[in-house]
């Protein structure tokens, strides 16, 4: 019987890294090897399976159609291999070992400073690697195996994932000095859409804010800015408009040292739901549920 030669996990790791980075040097750095080692490993892989996976030129790395398919399959194989280790860890101490969590930008700076010290104290064996990225990129990372779980805001279509909701995060309208309503809450109908400043497309907080108001004309009139909530608050402080903020940002002091005042929106839908998501049937599901319970308790 003829011998069967199988690709090694290291070769598949090199292929996926090159697909992710599109550059031999950066892919090699991500794999902690030299560029010549990575290039040689990929040539060995191509020789082993008898096909060209990558077309190499001086300036461009271009995957062949078959190379694209094999790289996607390699990513799934690597994810399955990682879960072998996850099975062993799940049988040992809870919340231990490496965990990669993506967090969206409208949560990370306001929630993480409160929860990380407590997590380190309660679970010293947990090595939590964090990546801040918008919802679409975070969910893609989760489904492709680059992240183990995602801390995000719902509603958001993240794919075929398991989700545990943590808590509701109320939405506020932030006003510059001189424009603050006298009422303790504000009605969505009173918001001037022509002066509304929101995050650009790609930030789900924009969609949550617009949905909370149930006013379709706002999407056309509001000014979408490719920036952070902190920068938008500074613009409001300078009288350029009003904006919407989640309660966690207000509670974290985003309005400190400004003349901006926030009022909660008086509407049933004026909130987003903070949740933790992970891949369905993950062997670390008990860890993720424990993490979700911990995050909910620490908020």
Overall average residue pLDDT: 88
pLDDT < 50 runs, ≥5 residues: none
CATH topology grouping of the largest domain: D-Maltodextrin-Binding Protein, domain 2
CATH architecture tag of the largest domain: 3-Layer(aba) Sandwich
> Gyration radius, to the nearest Å?
23 Å
Broad CATH class of the largest domain: Alpha Beta
**Beta-strand fraction estimate:** 15-25%
Number of helices: 11
End-to-end gap: 61 Å
| Biggest beta sheet summary | 9 strands, mixed
Describe what you observe in this structure.
It is a single chain. This protein is an alpha/beta fold. The chain has 3 domains: about 10-85, Orthogonal Bundle (Arc Repressor Mutant, subunit A); about 95-165 and about 275-299, D-Maltodextrin-Binding Protein, domain 2 (3-Layer(aba) Sandwich), CATH 3.40.190; about 170-270, 3-Layer(aba) Sandwich (D-Maltodextrin-Binding Protein, domain 2), CATH 3.40.190. The chain is about 45% helix and about 20% strand. The chain contains 11 helices and 11 strands. It has helices at about 10-20, 25-30, 35-50, 65-90, 110-120, 135-145, 205-215, 215-220, 230-235, 245-250, 285-299; strands spanning about 55, 60-65, 95-105, 125-130, 150-155, 160-175, 195-200, 225, 240-245, 260-265, 270-280. The strands form 2 sheets. Strands 3, 4, 5, 6, 7, 8, 9, 10 and 11 form a 9-stranded mixed beta sheet that branches. Strands 1-2 form a two-stranded antiparallel ribbon. Helix 1 (about 10-20) crosses helix 3. The protein is elongated. The mean pLDDT is about 90.
